[in-house]
Write a structure and sequence with these properties.
By secondary structure, this protein is mostly helical. It has helices at about 40-50, 55-65, 75-90, 110-125, 145-170, 175-199, and strands spanning about 5, 10-15, 55, 90-95, 105. The chain has a three-stranded antiparallel sheet with strand order 3-5-4. A hairpin with a 4-residue loop joins strand 1 (about 5) and strand 2.
């Protein structure tokens, strides 16, 4: 079977397979014994692994092989360019105490934020919205004076995602009730501002 490479923001990922497997909402067909890898899967998994503990490229490849029950092992040509891109982007740092000949990497604070944003985007693609309609990124033309507001909006999204994940992993009735009050108050105030501007 002929392989082809796809570029995924610094990640050259092997065997992306048919077009319908290289976009949001794809399904893993590894149970059929194929080697197709969904778009962005390697980058997402590498970020998760590095958030757990420092790892080298070889260790990442071995863990990925174990995680997929030996069905797929990412190639050095996929893993090392991705690690270089993450390092150059400031999402990881190389550990100075790595043993001779072994380069291990760990996530920086920026890398942890990037991982959260990746997970948020993935959940949005799946339609898993906790606070109702998803908040759109304000990436369109905006006055420069609104930059601080846009930054605050993104911080709110990250906080909302962290809360959703906490409730998913360790549900608390009191926390959910308190969060709902805060969100309801936020919606009311923002709606009031919008109505005032229209008036």
């Amino acid at each position: 079977m002929k392989q082809r490479n796809c570029e995924h923001g610094g990640e050259k990922q092997d065997m992306c397979g048919p077009r319908d497997m290289c976009g949001p909402g794809m399904h893993h067909h590894w149970s059929r014994g194929t080697s197709f890898v969904p778009k962005g899967y390697l980058r997402s998994q590498v970020l998760k692994l590095l958030s757990e503990k420092p790892m080298s490229g070889a260790e990442i490849m071995s863990v990925m092989e174990d995680k997929t029950s030996m069905r797929w092992r990412p190639s050095p040509g996929s893993v090392y360019p991705l690690l270089s891109w993450l390092l150059d982007s400031g999402y990881t740092r190389e550990l100075s105490d790595s043993e001779a000949g072994v380069r291990r990497y760990e996530l920086t604070e920026e890398g942890k934020k990037f991982l959260e944003e990746e997970e948020l985007r993935r959940d949005q693609h799946k339609g898993a919205h906790f606070f109702g309609p998803q908040f759109e990124d304000w990436e369109g033309p905006m006055p420069e004076e609104a930059r601080e507001l846009i930054d605050s909006w993104r911080q709110m999204k990250r906080a909302g995602f962290a809360l959703r994940r906490k409730l998913r992993d360790d549900y608390s009735e009191s926390l959910a009730t308190e969060a709902k009050k805060i969100v309801d108050d936020f919606v009311e105030k923002i709606s009031r501002l919008s109505e005032t501007e229209r008036a």
